[in-house]
């Protein structure tokens, strides 16, 4: 691929919210971290020519394109970063891998298990690195949580209490959108929010999910469409109980109708000798209880000794949500340079989807437990520093 | 019973933790509230003569007794307040009701459904009032929560996220006790902590539970007994999902091994137009979100306009856990004077036990849903002021 | 005085808010603590016969009286507890001490320094114990803070940041009352709230105040009286900076117009090796930072190993504001039994008033520092357990 | 200056912490905001050639230079952004203004009042825009606070309780540095932290400071230098009370030895009809109490309707500390395009320094009040959107 000193050429596919967040990552990664290979922001790909042109200019790209297949053929593109809607993921990722590119893809990996399995197979065959964008793995407070658990600082994990609560659908009068149709969105709160929760449960514990019980609710079965009332075919909220192969039990609750919660990914981990708590609404903080007689201490995870933080600012300076994409890009670049697989892998993405699929199947049989024998693989290790 | 102006004679059965807490309630209720009938603290009953004698003196009782049946025969006893271990509840409560007494009984109502059903039947036949001691109904912040929900201030309730987390069993080396044997304790965290949670879910919403999914865990299957390792036969933690007849879904998690949590009864209620949150570790506070665009406001529920607070102190003066027993006694006394049934009733206690029983049965079938058609009755109304 | 086994006879002077709070303390102290001498609640004294009679009955007193001088002559009264308005303090306390009684008196000790000095002199001459009612010394979290500081757990104290914020006068349209006239109230926020703050600063550090800088503000110089606008002659808010003889600096801010704060006595202590923080609105909590690299941990001060808590409830059960009076009564009773002086002493009350007086004098000279050489005595030790 | 469509050429002077933070702002401002003129990152200036070269490359600059005077002469440089140590500020800023450039300068404006006055005079004479870098004015939560106050949402402001607490000097064994010598650092905590606090007090209220009382402390008078113990000649902590021309009183406390506080700029504003509270350690939150009977509500200031947030991410996505520099750059660019003076101006910087100077003078006369008649000018308006 690229010569050892030339910068790695990057293309981002997608110009919407995620395309912008990933563009910011590529624009800043070299300024923050001095241990990553240089990158060149070559091409931004989008569907609409004028919009893509404008976005490319403001976001710092050298070129705009509306032909992603042509981009894959370019020799000066080393990394393809896929930020398009989920139904395009499988086709684009497999083509990029087959073209010998390194691939970063936004979560969820794919719309269904069949697609996801084909993508994992393609990744296994490919020469390039492949990575799925569970960006919350790079929240320094969550990375610190993972370190503390791995180091045994809270003992053996017994239980996890997890939720991801938002409120943007709380209004019963909120109109119908493509996000509320199963055929376009695949899933509702479970897929959108639950995927992050399941990934965190796996990453924090290093354990696979071996059994699930689940339930789904659609609180507003009909919403106002352009032609009158329309049926909502995805869930507004979901609940699950997960058995982990390390012996822990995790509860999960996700909702898009939890009034007053904007972005509350809440994780509480209880071990035999301590506990941890986190809320994404306060993403620079981790609450740590050490020892069975310990008390919850509030850490500002903004110090140089904390994971991911060496390249940023002096102590006490809070990072924003968008910083996680910078650290994600850095992890991919380091993996490419080292020639080791980045984490989380496509296989991690598939494992998460298998769990979500099992939750849906359990919900369909009134919540009875569904086993995942040998299917949910051990999470890949995440590089932290 | 007692003449209209003579004080009501009270007897408490039980001298341990709950006997002390209830004694404090009878000692203080007349000083706090000026709208309740006068009481005379006649007899404290216990098993051990010397211990009962000492306790009676220090706790303010006129007499001590070790013969609870004799106490039931006395004409100067109007109210019998039962604070003994659960296996004595049914016998004592039924006898007291048959003797024409008003009966207050600590939760849980009974050890099993059969006993509880007999007690409810006795209560229905009896001339005296009967009440079960879910004292958290009298936490002013929870009483305010109930008022706000009933007044429609958060719209229609969609979901409740509830937990009761403690940590006193977190140590794997903690020894075996009678509380960890099914035959003496009946149940573990589910019965002890879950009963409070289920009662609150019913009381806050005014809805009956019509279906449950449940799971139980015993994290430490063996603990050190006096003769070597002994099998733990109750749960350390439990999870459930409850369907309410009003259409809401409630999740429940209870644990005795949640390191760093001492007494964390946490309730979060999400409605179509607002939300409420409470944590017993901060019992004078209620977090209220009003309106779909509202933000969580922290109320100190210590103001004169808040429920139960007229009789206490000026604004801003926090109450303690023990105050709930004073307000519980006041509610019973007002009901006796009015001749109306106090709340929560024995039937409420039975309804809670039916839910807990269904959770255990669901757990035994891998979490599949168990319906409670027509069995979990509508919660009784709680007097607030 | 009383024979060694007879209960100590108690009289309370005053039937209003403080008379009720102190009555509750005497009613409950023997039930909570088993290491204190028995008491008999003999007489409640008040000005209005009917009101005093009613209050005596509901609060648990054997008798009511309107003649406090007659009460002082009774042989069956050992303890006189003075809860009357401040302008009666000096006369009543000196008479009670001269009659050989033990005296507990609500803060502030007196209306002015001259009265306070006479009271201290009377206390020094007297055979009975004397104690001033700074009840917040008995908040378990503050007692724990004092222990941790005395044990060197946060190193040498460098600074204290203290405030006491309330909002009951925030409304500019709130009417005139006797509390806003210097001749009846003596002082405003400074005397009412600042006295608690200064007492805590002295008690927590064990240091005397040797210099002050102060400022006062009356935000609403006129308020509506019964005969039209009337001049407010006390402060609504005050600020001070205190030099302590141990080398620390303490800042103080008190206000009655701080909207949203009901009873916010906030103390933050920074040492060379740790820090502590407390807020009376969450009186069961103490935030403890241990070590220079430590993080703030939130302790629930509700455990048996915490000060004052052995006699109360099992772990995790919050106490209320009124419990502090029970522990204050217990401290006085233990001191009487041991024959040692209780703490805080009348001299502590005088020392606090000297600091407040110096703050007023500093405010009158535009905030320039006023020294207190040799006048503010070392705080007395507080018994904790 | 630059043609209407050519990008504005930017030079940053300084390659250390602030140089990096400002470089990130210029790198990202065009991607975040679509309403600002385009910029070209022309030159990064530093003292060390190799270091500057490396920094320029990683931070996204076209060129590196070690000759700032030569940079001022270039026609393709429109904006000069000064991030050098304070003793270079006056010379560089005046030269840049005289060269017709727009100037952004890091706070503090200058080392002393004489320099600051000359800079303000130069700014008044200059054709270019001038702005001082009080970046916290762009924290969305603080910008929202300013809007709410200006709109009268908390009534008339009565008092502000402000602090800025850090702990990096808490260790008595921490070694001597240039920051602790008056000749190199100018001032200690007062200048470094107090300048932000005073700027916020002025900006939030729109009021000038007309009187101050102050006190300074150096807790560790000597620290270990390279040649043995050395005298510390700046303050470790400072306190002040400020009179504002709108009638409010503000208290200020700053410290570098407050163990457990990393970056705690805390502001609490009390008005006649509400209150606001902020802590930089939770920079995405504002606590708002509206109405005299209101309760403190916690707002996540991450919504599109909040100031500065239109260009960022969807609701609920937290920003980091570094985002404030992006918004600061945007404000300067918009002002240049509109031809209106940006805010905060050099005059604001001078006004802040006059207040700090008066605090030092008050401290030298034992805290007596120093008036600032006619010297502290009315704060300039801050553009918010």
TrEMBL record, chains A, B, C, D:
InterPro entries: Gfo/Idh/MocA-like_OxRdtase_N (IPR000683), Gfo/Idh/MocA_oxidrdct_glycsds (IPR050463), GFO_IDH_MocA-like_dom (IPR055170), NAD(P)-bd_dom_sf (IPR036291). Residues 9-134 form the Gfo/Idh/MocA-like oxidoreductase N-terminal domain. It comes from the Bacteria. Residues 144-276 form the GFO/IDH/MocA-like oxidoreductase domain. Keywords: NAD, Oxidoreductase. PANTHER family: BCDNA.GH03377. This is Gfo/Idh/MocA family oxidoreductase. It comes from Agrococcus citreus.
